[in-house]
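F.,

This is the one I mentioned.
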């Protein structure tokens, strides 16, 4: 029996009906007041409410609930991480706070309220995003003197001035974070980005080296402008920090995703990526994308049994349809493509985040993008499928019905995973349940 399935797991809600063992830590109504009290102890404004953005399931049974605290206008004020624990939560919170104060991390001053607190409602450790003992690179966010010294060594004296600002872009507890450094005036600002990772394994270094090889392959031909990736600058082994340049351009917006010319540019970028023939990368069998669904099946079985049966039926159909796909030679594949990874540059399209880059079925990328567009439009526009419809239309024109059919299959796989992820969130939960119980995830994208 897995850690996740053990009845003694700290997230188990033993008071709930047997047919709906919804964990209390997943319920913002149950933990909201405790989060409010924690924010007050940290000296933050407590006006607003909590929602669950996402639940992260890690190896060995560790679960982290990512909360968002919204103000009275539903604008994001804080991102917080809650981690259910066994034993005395107060003792564990104090110990984790001590770890964060150690000189090597220096993510909290001794005079400050503990950065990790125990919720009163249940044994859950709560912290604001940006505090993580597994990521020593977060010292760059909290320790100004150390940051100036580090930036001077990494980027030169110009980046050690008082005009340099730092912000936290993203943080997944225990796994990774992204910092943004910025300097200059409104007339001209420069940005650099740091990806932070644990220093206990070689994965981050390997990811940086892989990104460097991709960048070199793309820049070898100076005329190639269809696809651009950030410039790799340096990797700090001791800190687990990979430093990158910023792409000139902006994140792709809704108008870009629905515009035929921009869709064509994105497809051209994907073709450029999949045709990189001289980049050494790990091979990942395309069947592994289906195997990921087995992990979500276990989580739904444990925490969302009302959705598990429908999810399982759809996984079965996908496995059957996978066996009918014609063999496809492995090719370079981003494997985590969604609208948040796409930038509109002056000359073409930029792609971000190559941590999952591998050799696999290249149609996985377009399928992932299509699924994310359909999901976003379902949430934001009540079923308005302009961007995804435009994408499908251009795919059929560019690749023909056969390849468009493969992309539609991988879109179904991705959509099923997206629904399982959002079944645990506050804002996407009802849409995920409707999609799963309506068997819409197995409807071929139109």
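My design for it:
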């Amino acid at each position: 029996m897995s850690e996740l399935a053990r009845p003694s797991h700290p997230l188990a809600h033993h008071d709930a009906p047997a047919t709906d063992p919804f964990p209390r830590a997943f319920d913002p109504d149950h933990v909201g007041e405790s989060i409010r009290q924690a924010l007050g102890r940290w000296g933050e404004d407590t006006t607003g409410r909590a929602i669950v953005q996402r639940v992260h399931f890690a190896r060995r049974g560790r679960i982290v609930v990512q909360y968002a605290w919204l103000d009275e206008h539903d604008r994001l004020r804080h991102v917080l991480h809650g981690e259910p624990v066994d034993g005395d939560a107060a003792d564990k919170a104090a110990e984790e706070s001590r770890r964060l104060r150690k000189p090597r991390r220096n993510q909290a001053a001794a005079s400050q309220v503990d950065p990790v607190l125990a919720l009163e409602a249940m044994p859950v450790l709560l912290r604001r995003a940006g505090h993580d003992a597994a990521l020593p690179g977060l010292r760059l966010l909290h320790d100004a003197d150390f940051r100036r010294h580090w930036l001077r060594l990494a980027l030169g004296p110009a980046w050690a001035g008082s005009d340099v600002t730092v912000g936290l872009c993203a943080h997944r507890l225990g796994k990774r974070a992204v910092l943004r450094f910025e300097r200059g005036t409104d007339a001209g600002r420069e940005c650099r980005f740091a990806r932070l990772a644990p220093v206990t394994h070689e994965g981050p270094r390997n990811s940086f080296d892989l990104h460097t090889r991709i960048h070199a392959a793309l820049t070898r031909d100076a005329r190639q402008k269809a696809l651009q990736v950030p410039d790799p600058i340096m990797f700090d082994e001791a800190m687990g920090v990979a430093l990158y340049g910023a792409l000139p351009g902006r994140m792709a917006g809704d108008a870009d995703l629905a515009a035929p010319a921009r869709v064509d540019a994105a497809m051209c970028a994907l073709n450029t990526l999949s045709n990189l023939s001289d980049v050494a990368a790990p091979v990942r069998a395309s069947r592994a994308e289906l195997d990921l669904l087995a992990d979500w099946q276990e989580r739904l079985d444990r925490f969302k049994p009302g959705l598990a049966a429908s999810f399982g039926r759809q996984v079965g159909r996908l496995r059957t349809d996978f066996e009918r796909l014609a063999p496809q030679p492995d090719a370079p594949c981003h494997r985590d493509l969604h609208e948040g990874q796409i930038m509109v540059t002056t000359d073409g399209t930029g792609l971000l985040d190559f941590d999952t880059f591998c050799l696999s079925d290249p149609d996985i990328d377009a399928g992932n993008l299509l699924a994310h567009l359909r999901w976003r439009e379902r949430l934001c526009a009540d079923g308005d499928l302009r961007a995804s419809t435009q994408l499908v239309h251009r795919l059929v024109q560019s690749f023909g019905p056969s390849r468009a059919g493969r992309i539609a299959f991988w879109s179904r796989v991705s959509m099923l995973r997206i629904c399982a992820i959002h079944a645990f969130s506050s804002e996407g939960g009802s849409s995920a349940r409707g999609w799963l119980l309506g068997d819409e995830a197995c409807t071929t994208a139109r």
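The two ends are 40 Å apart (CA to CA).

Talk soon.
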